[in-house]
Amino acid sequence: MKLYENIHTETIDAVIEKFKTSIKTGLSSKESESRANEYGLNELEEGKRKNPWKMLFEQFTETMVVILIIAAIISAFLGKEIETISILLIVILFAVLGFVQEYRAEKAMAALRKLAVPFVRVIRDGTVKEIAAKYLVPGDIIVMETGNIVPADVRIIETANLKIQEAALTGEADPIDKRAQAVIKPDAPLGDRVNMAYMGTVITLGRCKAVVVRTGMNTELGKIANMIQEVQKVRTPLQNRLDQLGKWLAIAGGLAALLVLLIGVVMGESFVDMFLVGISVAVAVIPEGLPAVLTITLALGSQRMLKRNALIRKLPAVETLGSVTVICSDKTGTLTENRMTVISIESAGIEIHDFPSKSQSYPHSIQLNLMIGTLCNDAELKICEQDGVTVIGEPTEAALVDAAVKAGLVKHDLELQLPRIGEIPIDSSRRRMSTIHQLKESIPLCSAYNLKSEYIMFMKGAVDSLIGLSSHIRTENGVEQITHEWVGRIRSAHDKMAEKGIRVLGFAYREIDILDQVQSMHHLEEQVVFVGMAGLMDPPREAVKSAVSKCTAAGIRPVMITGDYPLTAMAIAKKLGITDSAEFLTGEHLTKMSEDELLEKVRGVNVFARVAPQDKLRIVNSLQSQGEIVAMTGDGVNDSPALKKANIGVAMGITGTDVSKEASDMVLLDDNFATIVTAVEEGRGIFDNLIRFIKFSLGGNLGKVLVMLLAPILGVTIALNPMQLLWLNLLTDGLMGLGLGVEPSEEDNMNRPPRSTKDPILNRPAIIHVAWTGTLIGVIALGVIYFYFDPTQAEDTYWQTMLFATIGFTQIGHAFGLRSSSYFLFSPVSNKLFTVVTVLTLILQLSVIYVPFLDDFFSLVPLKTGDMLISILLGIVMLIAVRIEKILNLHKFKVRLLHSKLSEM
Ligand code: ATP
Fold first, then answer.
1. Of all protein residues, whose CA lies closest to atom 2 belonging to ligand 1?
2. Any transmembrane segments, and where (predicted)?
C-alpha cells in the first residue's frame, strides 16, 4: 500500500476503502502487525543519542583530566617514567569512573523518557484498546477527545463539537472547527483542511473518530521534525551554580599550587619535582567528582521517585522540589479518591437521602432526575454475565449511570427511545453539559410528565450554573414559574449537602418543537425547567491527611484550587487539615480583585473554589511574586499555562490529558497528593546528599592542602608525592563521595523549613564544617609528621606511608561521620553502594601499602600493625568529631523549633 497524498480531497468512504480498514472493527491484529513491519514505528526520529564512545572521549576533555595529561607529558619529557605511567593510570581511572557514572545516568534518563510516551485509544479486532502511540499504523481507527495530542496524521470520520489547535504546525493559535464530512480542494493550505488532524496538534474541545493516514517521519510534523527536535540538553540551575563553585575552587587550587611550588623551590627542591607536586595540589583542591556525583544523584533520585509514583519529566525538577514552599492542588482525584457515588436525590418536595433505598421503587420525579443524569452523560454502561454491571467513563458521570441502573433505568434501553442527536459538551467555565434527544417513542416516564415535543434537551451541571438558565421548576403540581422563594429553597437544600463535602449536580430539561440543525445549539440553553439535584460522595484519600500534616511540619503550605462549589471544597479542606479558617476565595472574587488585592489575600487563603483554569495562572503569578516556590497540579488542556508557569508543574498520570502532561515537570502516576509530598521529601534528600558530598570533598581537600603548605615548618618539603595525592583524591572524592551521594534521607528531613533557592550552596554551617574538618585533618596529619619524621633518615619513607594511611583513614572516618542518622551508622544495608565503596577503598588502600610491587610504585612501605592501628584510630577520632557536630546541630535545631512553636502559640 502506498501512502496517499491529498487525502483531504477524498470522501470518508473513499479513504476507508483505500486504507482497507473498517470504521466499526478497525484493523485486525494480524494486519496491523504486517503494516507495522512495512511502515515502522510511529515515532519521530530522535535527535542523536549520545554515543558511549563519544561519552568516554569527553571524559578526557574534562579540565582536570587535561591538566593531568599535560603533567604526564611533561614528566615523560623529564624522564620520570614511573610518574608518567602512574599519572596516566590515574587519568584512565578518573575517566572510567566518570564514564560509568555518566553512562548510568544517561540510561536512567532514557528509561524515564520511555515511560512518558502517550497512549491512544484504537479500534482493533472490533474492540477499543489502549496502546502506546508509537504502535499506530496507517489504517488504524482511533478515538480521541478533549486534551489529547493528535498522535499521527489522520482523516477525521466522526466528530462531536471538535476543535483542534494547530499552532504547532500553522502558528494559528485559535482552535479550528473540524468537520468530518467536508471534502477540500487539493491546494488548500494545512489550516483549511478541516477534515484532517495532524500529529502534534491539540484537541481543545469535543471528540472524534479518525483513520490514521500517515505515521512517524511521514507526517507533516515529521517533515519539519529536524527543525524542532534539537532538544536542548538542559542544565539544572544547581549544575550552573556548582560550575561557578568549581571555577572558584580551580582558582584557589591554582594559587595553592603556586604557593607549594614557590615554597619547595625556595627550600631547595628541584623545579621539576615541585612542578609535579604543584599540579597534584591543584588536582587535590578541585572536587573533580562533583559533576559526576551531581548527575548520578539527580538521575538515581528521579528513579527512586518513580518507584514512589512520581515520574520526573524535567531533571531540574528534582532539585526544585526540595525548595517547594506552596503546593497548589486540585481537589477531585488528587485530594479525594474520585470514586463518586450518588447518595441522595432531591426533587421539589421529595428527598431521598439514603440512595439507593431499600424499596428500590422511586417516584416519577426522582426517576426523571435519574433519566436526565444517565442520558445527558458520556459514560458507557457495560453489562456482562461475569462482571455484572460496569460503567466506563468519568467518575461523576459513571456514578449517575450507575445510580439510574439501581433505579431500573438502563442507559442503552432509554437511548433507543430517546436517541441523542446533538450535544453541547461540558467545559470548566460553563460547568454544565446539555444533550438533545429525539422523542422517538413515548415512554411511561415522559407520558407521566406529558412530554410530547419532537425533541427534548437535557441538561446537567453545577446548580448555580443551571439556576440562572431556569425559567421554570418542576414540582408535584406540574411546571411552575421559578420564583425567588424557589431559588432560595433550592440554594439552601444545596448548601446543606455541600457543607458535608458532597458534590451536588442539578438537572433540567427543555422541550423543543423545531430543531434548526444549522444554528449553533448554544442558544437552546435557556428557559429550561429545573428538575432537581443529586448529591455525590467522593471520599478524601486515605494518605492525604497525613501528607498534609507532613507538609505543614515541613514549612510547606498546602492550597486547594478546585472547580467545585465553595462549601463542598471547604468541607473537604477542613477534613484534611488544609485550612482551619472560614476564609476562601472564588473565581468570581478573583475576577473582581486587582493584582495588589490578590497579592494581599493569597498569603493567607488556602481554599480557592469555583476557579477557572485561567485563574490558576493568576494565583501562581501572585504566589511567585512573593518569593514562593510553587508546585501546581492540573489535568485539563486549559491548565497548561499554569503548569508551565509553576516552578513544578504536576500533571495527573491517570486522569490527566496529554497536553497537561506535556506541559508538566512531573507526572503523578497515581494522581495522589501524597505522592507530591513524597517527591518533595526525596528532593530534599537529594539536595542534602549533594551538600554531604561537597562538605566531605572540600573538607578532605583542605586538609591535604594544609599539610602540603605547612609541612615545610616541620622540615618536610614534599609531604605527599604526586601519586600519593592523586590516589587519595581518587579514592575519597571518587569512590567514597559517590557512596555518600546516595545516602537515605535524614529523619528530620521534613521537619525543617524549605531551603531557599537564593541561599548559597555552601551556607554558613557548611563553610564552618569544611573549615574545621579540613583543619582537623591537617592537624592530625602534621602530628603524624611530627612524631614519625626523622630528618636524619632522609631516605626513609616510613613516615610518609604513615601520613598517607592516616589521611586515607581520616577521610573514611569523615565520610562515615557524615552519613544519615536515620539508620544505624555502620548498617551495611541502608546504603549498599556506600558499603561496596568502603570495602573497595579499604582493599585498595591496604593493597598499595602492603602489596610489594604496588607499594614500590607509590613509594610506600608496609606499616607495622601497631602503627596501622594508630592510623585507623585517628580515622575513628575524625568520625566521632563529625558525629558530635551533628548531634550539636540537631540539638540546636530542636531548640529553635521549640522556640518558634512556642512563639506561635
Ligand atoms: P478539581 O479537579 O479542579 O478539584 P472538580 O473536578 O471538582 O475540580 P470540575 O471538574 O472543574 O471540578 O467541575 C466543576 C463543576 O462542574 C462541578 O462542581 C460540577 O458542578 C460540574 N461538573 C463536573 N462534572 C460534570 C459533568 N460530568 N457534567 C456536568 N457538570 C459537571
1. 332
2. 56-78, 84-100, 248-268, 274-300, 702-720, 726-745, 766-789, 801-826, 833-853, 865-884
Q: Is 111 within a domain?
A: no
- Are 709 and 740 in a shared domain? yes
Distance 487 CA to ligand 1 centre (A): 21
Mutate to test the pocket of ligand 1, among 332, 400, 431 (most ligand atoms within 8 A of CB): 431
Mean pLDDT, the chain, rounded, equals: 85
Position 113 pLDDT exceeds 80: no
Ligand 1, from 396, 464, 507, 525: best to mutate by most atoms within 8 Å of Cβ? 396
Distance 220 CA to ligand 1 centre (A): 36
How many angstroms separate the alpha carbon of residue 399 from the centre of ligand 1?
13
pLDDT tens digit sequence for 54-94: 777 776 666 667 777 877 887 788 777 777 787 787 778 77
Same domain, 456 and 600: no
Distance CA 199, CA 194 (A): 14
pLDDT band, residue 231 (cuts 50/70/90)? very low
The pLDDT assigned to 373 comes to 96
Annotated catalytic residue: which of 330, 378, 402, 665?
330
Over residues 738-791, the pLDDT tens digits come to: 888 888 888 888 888 888 877 787 888 899 999 999 999 999 999 999 999 988
Which of 459, 564, 565, 655 has most ligand 1 atoms within 8 Å of its beta carbon, as the pocket-test mutant?
564
Whose alpha carbon is nearest atom 19 of ligand 1?
Answer: 462
d(CA 164, CA 124): 25
Specify the ligand 1 atom closest to the Cα of 465: 20
Identify the pLDDT of residue 354: 80
Nearest protein CA to atom 25 of ligand 1, as residue: 461
Q: Is 147 left (phi over 0), alpha (psi -120 to 50) or beta?
A: left
Based on the fold, state whether residues 529 and 579 are members of the same structural domain.
no
Q: Looking at the structure, do residues 492 and 625 belong to the same domain, yes or no?
A: no
517 has a pLDDT exceeding 70: no
Are 147 and 636 in contact by the 8 Å Cβ rule? The answer is yes
Picking from 615-619, 651-655, 853-857, 877-881, which range would have the lowest pLDDT averaged per residue? 853-857
Q: List the CATH number of the domain containing 382.
A: 3.40.1110.10
Residue 844 burial (10 A CB sphere; 0-12, 13-18, 19+): middle
- How many domains is the chain built from? 5
Do 736 and 700 fall within a single domain? yes
Judge whether 673 and 334 are in contact, CB under 8 Å: yes
Pick from 847, 757, 799: nearest CA to 323: 757
Cell numbers of 355, please? 440512595
Instruction: Kindly give the distance from the C-alpha atom of residue 494 to the centroid of ligand 1, in angstroms, as a whole number.
Output: 15
The beta-strand segments (E) located in 36-84 are: none
Please check whether residue 234 lies inside any domain of the structure: no
Closest ligand 1 atom number to CA of residue 333: 2
Taking residue 55's Cβ as centre, other Cβ atoms within 10 Å add up to 14
Domain boundary among 226, 260, 275: 226
Q: Indicate whether 393 and 469 sit together in one domain.
A: yes
**Mean pLDDT calculated for residue range 494-523:** 84
Based on the residue annotation, tell me whether 330 is a catalytic residue of this protein. Answer: yes
| pLDDT value at residue 584 | 95
Residues in contact with ligand 1 (CB, 6 Å cut-off): 330-333, 394, 396-397, 426, 428, 431-433, 460-462, 503, 505, 562-565
**CA atoms of 457 and 418, how far apart (whole Å):** 10
DSSP assignments along 770-817, one per residue: HHHHHHHHHHHHHHHHHHH--TT-TT--HHHHHHHHHHHHHHHHHHHH
Q: Measured in angstroms, how far is the CA atom of residue 463 from the centroid of ligand 1?
A: 11
- Residue identifier of the C-alpha nearest atom 14 of ligand 1: 563
Same domain, 740 and 853: yes
User: 65 lies in which domain range?
Assistant: 52-105
Rounded CA-CA distance 431/610 in Å is 9
Q: Are residues 101 and 122 in the same domain?
A: no
**Tens-digit pLDDT profile for residues 395-447:** 899 999 999 998 888 998 898 889 998 888 887 778 999 999 988 776 777 77
CA of 420 to the centre of ligand 1 (A): 22
